[in-house]
Each structure stands twice: as C-alpha cells, then as structure tokens.
Amino acid sequence: DGGDDDAGQASMKDSLVILIFTTSALSFLGCTGIIVSYLLFEKLRRAAFKLVRNLAISDLGFAASFAINAIGRSRSGCRAQCTAQATIQSYFELSSVLWTTVMSDRLYRTVIHDETMPRTMLNGDRLTYLCNLYAWGLPLVIALAPLHFPGGWKSQYGTQSGVPWCWIKEAAGEQPLNYWRLTYYVPLWIGIAFNLWCTFVV
C-alpha cells in the first residue's frame, strides 16, 4: 500500500508539472507577443500600454520561474536551482500584482478625478521613478530578504511538501507559520484589496 501511495503521489506530481509547464509556456508566449508588439508598433508606445508592457514582463518572468523548475526536476538535489526558482517566482509574482495596482490607480484617477495620464508617464519623470521603485524595487527587496536572514542565504527557501516547486520553507515544529511568508503575503493581499476597491469604486 505504501508503495502504491508513493507511486500515486509521484504520478500526481508529474501531472502537475506537465500542467504547470503547459500553462507557463502559454503565458510566456502571450507575454512575449505583447512585448514584441510594443517594440514593433510605435503607436503602442504610450503611457497606458507601457504599463501593460511592464505587467507582461513581470508575468513572463513568473512563467519562466516555473519553467526553470520543470526543466531542472532531474536535478532535484540542486539547492542553487531550487533557490533561484523560488526567488524569481517570488519577485515576478509580487511585481505583477504591484503593476496591476499602478494600473488600478491610474484608472481610478482618470475616471473619478478626471486626471489625464501624463504623456511622460513611465518615461523619465518623477512619477516614472516612483512607479518603478514601487513595482520593481519593493518586490526585489522582499524576494532577496529571505536569502540573507537569518542563518545564511539557503536558510529560508527550499522544497515544499506535496508540490513540485520551491518557495519559502514551511514552518518548523510547532510554529504555525514561517513569518517570512508574511513579507510576501501582506503586500500581495494589500495589492489585491486595493484592486478590488478600485474596481468597485470605478
């Protein structure tokens, strides 16, 4: 029975990997299409579509993180590959959510406050700096933090029980939660709540 259970779990993981790799590949192709369109068609290089481009870059990186995991499964003992996949996943997934909050904010200001999106938006002005610092910089700090505190760069990222990818380690012993996960989930939940609020108001 134990052998059958192990075989069933292995088969389920293989199926999950195939599903993740397939959806990631489709997402990768879609995001690549958006980025290529932005580069090819000058009319698309406007403030609003620059936000879409940045969101596509984030989603492309997130899809690539699962591809890294699927391709590297044969090297299951490679901690460097596991850590790289988990860090990239955390960074781009959170960055993607934060870019959607930037888009929600611009939509809210345009519809409710009748503000016209400046042509210089995301093209060298102070607003560009703040948006990039928020949506690229904040996720970078959050994704890199578990690599350094506490106990060395390998201490907080690792394999997950029951799933074929790496992320912040599960809590050890009687601890109900690895508090490093809060550094990821709190900004994520705030971002999702803000998007829902903007959608409701607009």
Structure report:
The chain has about 200 residues and is mostly helical. Helices cover about 70% and strands about 5% of the residues. The chain has a two-stranded antiparallel sheet. The chain starts with a helix and ends with a helix. The model has no long low-confidence stretch (mean pLDDT about 80).
Count of helix runs: 5
**Radius of gyration, whole Å:** 19 Å
Mean pLDDT: 78
**SS elements, strand count:** 2
Q: Can you give the helix content as a percent range?
A: 55-70%
- Kindly report the spatial arrangement of strands forming the biggest sheet: 1-2
SSE class: mainly alpha
Shape: globular
Q: β content, as a range? A: under 5%
* Termini gap: 56 Å
Labels describing this entry:
two-stranded antiparallel ribbon, mainly alpha, globular, 2 strands, 202 residues, 5 helices
Compile the SSE list and pairings.
Blueprint: H1 2-40, H2 47-71, H3 79-111, H4 126-144, E1 157-159, E2 166-168, H5 180-201
Antiparallel strand pairs: 1-2
Helix pairs in contact: 1-2, 2-3, 3-4, 3-5
Provide a concise account of the structure shown.
By secondary structure, the chain is an all-alpha fold.
